[in-house]
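Quiz preparation item.
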């Protein structure tokens, strides 16, 4: 198959404007393109992650809520790497985001923490 990486991660938002604000202005991901698809009454926003991966945000009218249990099947969380976790946490908290206390990965001894996006999707910061 010659797979070389992840191209994109797609998220369906409950409130497109709030999620756009969160991922663009709070997380700092630049917009690649934004389109409104009239036939679907849906926005699609492509965002650039520094490693070349893209994050896609979608809005769909009346999308059903996804049950979110810590060990439910499906996507567990979205993890971003950082070289300075303390600075990243300080920046998030300065913007009003509640961030869990730092933890240590028992296998790698690396520091990590979690916070949530506007829809409660767990986001991990992992220090490399």
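Solution:
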């Amino acid at each position: 198959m010659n797979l070389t990486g992840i191209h994109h991660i797609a998220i369906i938002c409950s409130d497109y404007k709030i999620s756009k604000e969160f991922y663009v202005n709070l997380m700092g991901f630049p917009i690649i393109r934004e389109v409104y698809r009239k036939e679907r009454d849906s926005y699609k926003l492509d965002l650039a992650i520094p490693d070349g991966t893209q994050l896609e945000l979608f809005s769909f009218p009346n999308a059903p809520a996804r049950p979110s249990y810590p060990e439910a099947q499906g996507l567990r969380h979205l993890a971003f790497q950082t070289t300075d976790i303390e600075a990243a946490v300080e920046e998030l908290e300065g913007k009003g985001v509640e961030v869990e206390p730092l933890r240590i990965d028992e296998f790698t001894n690396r520091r990590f923490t979690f916070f949530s996006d506007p829809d409660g999707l767990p986001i991990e910061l992992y220090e490399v």
